[in-house]
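Reader question, answered in our methods column.
A reader sent in the components of a multi-part assembly and asked whether the whole thing could be modeled at once rather than chain by chain. We filled in our standard form and ran it. Here is what they sent:
COMPLEX SIZE: two components
ENTRIES:
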Amino acid sequence: MKFNRNVLPNKEEKKGLFKKIHLSNNIGDFVFERLTLLFAVSVFLLVLLMGYEMYQSSKLSIDKFGLSFLSGSTWDPVKEIFGALPIIYGTIVSSVLALAIALPLSIGVAVFLAELAPSWLEKPLSFLVELLAGIPSVVYGLWGVFVLVPWIRDYVEPYLSDKLGFLPFFNGAPYGFGLLAAVIILSVMVLPIITSITRDVLKSVPAAQREAALALGATRWQAIKIVLADSRSGILGATMLGLGRAIGETMAVTMVIGNRALISPSLFDPSYTMASVIANEFTEATSELYLSSLVELALVLFVITIIINGLARLLVWSMDRKWRRG
Amino acid sequence: MKEKGFFYYRKKAVNYLMIFLSFAAALAAIIPLAFIFYYTVSKGAQYLNLSFFTQMPKPVGETGGGMANAIVGTLILIGIGGGIGVPVGIMTGIYLSEFGNKKFAAVVRFMADILSGVPSIVVGVVAYTLIVVPMKHFSALAGGVALAILMIPTVTRTTEEMIKLVPQSIREAGLALGIPKWKTTLMIVLRTAWKGIATGVLLGLSRAAGETAPLLFTALGNRFWSTSIGQPIASLTVYIYDYAKSPFEDWNNQAWTAALVLILLIALLSLLFKIITRSKYKTN
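And here is the structure of the entire assembly that came back:
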């Protein structure tokens, strides 16, 4: 076949033309790719920078207190003794109890959304649960201060101390502000997170699992049990994400927990969490050591949430991969 | 035919009980939502008037006044946060889905996930040591940077997910026309995915608008009018916190109004985005 030589470029021209286009494209692509890489690296570095920056700013307190920062039970800004044990205690107790309430409820809601609800009900209900996650933390706190705390003070705590007052957990004056209020508000706040992830995990279990169970004469609930068993690691991941959220939750907790560094078995007593100490005292910290101790508290919080979230993501990912591999 | 025995009925009973409990849990989850909305709307609307939007906060002891400075302050803060956080998030998302080599992309993805789990108060502390300490005073800039850090993971991950949904054939079509990859990515892929990305940006912005903890010791708050990014600035959320703690009833009531306005602002934001992202053309 013969080509019209006047229209088409010859071999030499072709090479030059390609080179020209190629080069300009290459430069654009080169620059653009490196630019996106730069931003990606910056996100990566940001996390490292955060840890480094807090370590630097808390050096004073790390050098002074060492490990006794975590084990000391006195938090006294006046005498400049900073032991965070009561604060760590308050953080762990409030978040674990909140999870104990939120987890069964969340699984119930997730099962309803993923397995039982007809689609006309599932969509609006999912939307409402997501709305719950979208309410600003400070609005939860506002509601806690003016609605939840008076209700707890006037009804819940008198009732509990009347019926279960012999237990050390329900002992003391019904003051309203305290661990109980924080636990309740935290459980409402972590519910949407655990629910939405659990719902997605349940939905990722292939329908064949349910059909097989139903075909063997299982009831709806028995089939759901099998799906739940399949989703164990995903639900565990969701729980840990909820835990991470509860540990780091600041405003709502600060507003209702009473803010006193105190180790007491009673849920009626005021308590303190790491996040609420920082929120409450940071602007009041007058000395370098005080400020540095608060930054160290933030560093501890940072490390804990990184560990919890890291594990949670790995669990949810492994779950995701399990069904994809088939 | 065999008689249906005890185990059959027990199994049935457990089944109905569990289905009922699951339904009850769903109902119970909605109750606090209804409560919070009821109180915010009824209490907030009671004190909502024009002066809330146009006037400045009154000094201690005087009733009335508004939060004009806080409304503007919140808008400025999310403006700074979005101005920094959105480009970083989108570019990182593009890297993750279009260019990333597998290992490093996985690391960045993991870091973004970790970042999304870092408590907002910790981000506030970092912004304090990074910006407030060297500048030697609290500023809107520090608050905005804190909000940007909080937005980045949301925007990054949504961008990545949304770009991944764009069919490969669309990219190939662009490349086949001789359009360089960067142009294909920016003009074709990003355009195809931009509605989803906008949703992610909106989510990030509305979360940022509701944040209080990272602003407490970065933007601090300001009882006067200020739009300078180098100065402390007021925000609705910090006002809600301060006024809820205050012993004055008038301030408590204004906290409810501020909460209502904040929620309306977030709703308005999402409405705005819905309108912007509404397609000019009908697509299938």
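What stands out: Strands of chain A lie at 75-76, 81-82. Chain A has two domains: 11-54, 85-325.
Send us your own complexes using the same form.
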